[in-house]
Amino acid sequence: MSGRRLSKSAVLRGALAVLAMGQLAAGPARAGIAAEPAAPGARAAPAGHVQASLVAEHLALVPGRRAELGVLLAIDPGWHVYAQARNDSGLPVAVRPELPAGWVAQPLQWPAPHRHLSPGPLLDHVYEGEVLLLLPVDVPADAPPGATITLRAHVEWMVCQNVCLTGEADVELALPVAGATQESGQAPLFRATRARLPEAWPQGASAPGAAGGIPAPVSADLQGDTIRLTAPGALSITLLPAEDCVELPQLVDEGAAQGAVLVLHLPTDRPANARLRGCVEVLFPAEPARDAASPRIVALDLPVGKTSAVPRIPADAGNPPSPSPTEGEH
Amino acid sequence: MILTLSRTAFAGGLLAVALLPLVPVFQDAPKPQSAPAAKPATAPQEGMAPKTASADHGGHAMAGLKAGDEAPDFLLKDLQGQEVALSKLLAGNKLVVLEWFNPDCPVSRAYHMPDSVMGKLAASYADKGVAWLAINSGAAGKEGSGHERNVKAVADYGMKYPVLLDENGAVGKLYGARTTPHMFVIDKDGVVRYAGAIDDGGGKAKGETNYVKDAVDALLAGKDVAVKDARPFGCGVKYAE
């Protein structure tokens, strides 16, 4: 099979890359990151397979406003980097902002990743192709208009195909401070990324849409050691669990289901404070009123402890009824 | 099912020791014996792990052993071709540390080069009745697999403990080893007392708390292990397709 040939050449490249990275990590390049501008050569990913850059949604930084920045990773075809999620292997991408005094970075926002199975089976949640990790930055009110500010971040990742490599880069972006601004050429990428950020799950037992008026397309029902997620009318439901999600022993088989129902078996010995955390990706059929290209991503944070009584949260009435309430069950 | 298998294997191991005065230390790989040694249940049997795993693990092949689980016996060959059996080490009153290993995984490598976190820790226990074993469950042709590559790694990394090859992945799957490294500490009674990450360093070999050290120190002192698990990190084990 051609896979074997590919794998061998990848091993060779991998070995070389590891050597190169070892030298780089040992050198002085890492020490002076925050103190002085990185040398031009230090900005590129040293090992290949991933190119990191810092990008912004707008062309200027406005005092007192939040600037929408992001770390953009362009990943070679066939390779993947790891989300901050419940993964069997890998290391999640790590971003350390390095900002001038008084500038405050908000927590990194991760778009919904994809399931990735490798032999074992090992189940990971990854990004392929291109991913933008949103890094909002609060611009101080006293930022001087007319000045040019260089914002920096240190980025580390593990990238895998048949082999795994670790990589790191110092990325930076210089932007002017101005009283007003307009969109950059990257703005569509920011919009597309936001479409893959989880929308809020309605809190408690309140009606769907209570949080910000967004209708929730999915409901949850806990019975004993089984939780059932239902999204009437959905083509598929995929659970993307967070790192601190309750252990799901059958996640490989149960984490993604065709149809409107996803059934998860919880461990019988789970702790009383166990929570189902992460998000679900729900794919609906195309229809005029909805952007067919945008599956719904809904945040999950539900108590599923042995003694928890999860109130049944009704599904959004705006979605078409499920053709069969048991569809998708095994 | 795992429990059944391993109990049988342990019984066999104990029996073998009753017959043989030999108590193999890990550096002396078990020598070929005239008396029949225990026939551990696992390694040569392909495909035994995944769907037949214990009901405790819910059918998830890689759920992994947890602290408190009985460590299933295994029989693997080291790079010199000598068979190494867990049951024999335990019968020799050894505490056993298993390190899932891939010399070409940057995380595995970081714990061996340039400053060998693994090697130093293993060496510190060499005269304290602790057998430290590296297991490579990478399938033939995959990253870091094969006899030649691992012989070179032992030399390059200065490893003083055996590397066992598990190319069909049976032992890796039996233990639920997911990453390189993925660590298991097994007490003298054959019970897993720690399973998971080597430390809290998140892959850079710079952890402040080495969970394996803490677990082994506790067991050597006759105490309970405080931290019994920590989510392992590293490259995925390169199992056979």
Put the structure in a nutshell.
Chain A is mainly beta and 330 residues long. Chain A has helices at residues 2-26, 187-194, 251-254; strands at residues 50-56, 66-75, 80-82, 94-98, 104-105, 114-118, 122-128, 130-138, 148-160, 164-176, 219-223, 226-230, 236-241, 256-258, 261-265, 275-283, 296-303. In chain B, the strands form 2 sheets. Chain B has an 8-stranded mixed sheet. Chain B has a two-stranded antiparallel sheet with strand order 6-10.
Largest sheet: number of strands, sense, barrel closure of chain A:
6 strands, antiparallel
The helix fraction of chain A, in percent, is 10-25%
Indicate the radius of gyration of chain B in whole angstroms: 16 Å
Give the radius of gyration of chain A. Answer: 22 Å
Unreliable stretches of chain A (pLDDT < 50, length at least 5) are 1-46, 204-214, 314-330
The total beta strand count of chain A reads 17
N- and C-termini, Cα separation of chain A: 34 Å
Describe this structure as you would to a colleague:
The complex is a heterodimer of chains A (330) and B (241). In chain A, strands 3, 4, 6, 7, 9 and 10 form a six-stranded antiparallel sheet that branches. The radius of gyration of chain A is 22 Å and the shape is globular. Helix content of chain A is 11%, strand content 35%. In chain A, a hairpin with a 3-residue loop joins strand 6 (114-118) and strand 7. Chain A has 330 residues and is mainly beta. Chain A has helices at 2-26, 187-194, 251-254; strands at 50-56, 66-75, 80-82, 94-98, 104-105, 114-118, 122-128, 130-138, 148-160, 164-176, 219-223, 226-230, 236-241, 256-258, 261-265, 275-283, 296-303. Chain A contains three helices and 17 strands. The longest helix of chain A is centred in the first third of the chain and has 25 residues, at 2-26. Chain B is of the alpha/beta class. Chain B has seven helices and ten strands. Chain B has helices at residues 2-19, 86-91, 106-110, 117-124, 147-157, 170-175, 211-220; strands at residues 75-78, 83-85, 95-100, 130-136, 163-165, 179-180, 183-186, 192-196, 229-230, 235-236. In chain B, the strands form two sheets. Chain B has an eight-stranded mixed sheet. In chain B, strands 6-10 form a two-stranded antiparallel sheet. The longest helix of chain B is centred in the N-terminal third of the chain and has 18 residues, at 2-19. The model of chain B is unreliable at 1-61 (pLDDT under 50). The chains are: A mainly beta (330), B alpha/beta (241).
